[in-house]
Amino acid sequence: MVAIVVGASSGLGRAVAELLGQRMPVVGVSRRGLGDASKPETARRAIAAAERLGTIDLLVNSAGAGIFGPAGSYDEESIDRLLDANLKATIVFCDALFPRFAEHGGTIVNVLSTAALIGKPNESVYCAAKWGARGYSEALRAEAKGTKARVITVAPGGMDTPFWPERREGFMDPAEVAAVIVDALARRINVTEIHISR
């Protein structure tokens, strides 16, 4: 059993990778490591690295970027960054692994946000990306019916992570959120959505 964790360099992704690493080999994907998660070549490199450690049966997509501001304030570079990190990376890694999971078994965990559940002011493009990731995940879950693949979405509330430029008092500790996710995976709870908030 081997896990691939996308977005493993900081925040929730790092916390999940550290907890999973106590149970199984983990290949972490980050810009500082294997490269841009929105590129298929990065997914291929991560899969090759994981296959050297054993059978891949878990993918956690936790990459993300936040750029906020009122509608009309986003330039092309900001839009691309938000869509690449929050949507395209999820699609690229799921598409790379879903067929084998459907045939041989495996679990995909796509980390969304409460921004995938409700529109928020000054977060229009971020919400669009997260809603897109939610729609993709629901479609993938529909395709998974009758196969050996399992698709779980996680929608956490605000977490105190490097995602924000300054500390966020009162926000959740990513280690606590990671513990909920890893516990659900370890106990093989029959769940498709996990909402976590204070």
Secondary-structure blueprint of this entry?
Elements: E1 2-6, H1 11-20, E2 26-29, H2 40-51, E3 56-61, H3 76-104, E4 106-111, H4 124-144, E5 149-156, H5 174-186, E6 193-196
Parallel strand pairs: 1-2, 1-3, 3-4, 4-5, 5-6
Helix pairs in contact: 1-5, 2-3, 3-4
Give a written overview of the molecule.
With 198 residues, the protein is α/β, with parallel strands linked by helices. The protein has one domain: Rossmann fold, CATH 3.40.50. Helices cover 43% and strands 17% of the residues. It is built from 5 helices and 6 strands; from the N terminus they run E-H-E-H-E-H-E-H-E-H-E. Strands 2-1-3-4-5-6 form a 6-stranded parallel beta sheet, sandwiched between helices. The radius of gyration is 16 Å and the shape is globular.
* Mean pLDDT score: 91
Second rung of CATH, namely the architecture: 3-Layer(aba) Sandwich
At the fold tier of CATH, the topology name is Rossmann fold
Separation, N- and C-terminal Cα atoms:
32 Å
Reading side by side through the largest sheet, how are the strands ordered? Answer: 2-1-3-4-5-6
What's the tally of helices? 5
Major pleated sheet:
6 strands, parallel
Percent of sequence in beta strands:
15-25%
Radius of gyration: 16 Å
Share of residues in helices: 40-55%
| CATH homologous group name | NAD(P)-binding Rossmann-like Domain
CATH class: Alpha Beta
Shape: globular
Task: Please provide the count of β strands.
Answer: 6
Number of individual domains: 1
Estimated structural class: alpha/beta
The ordered H/E elements are EHEHEHEHEHE
Question: Low-confidence segments, ≥5 residues, pLDDT <50?
Answer: none
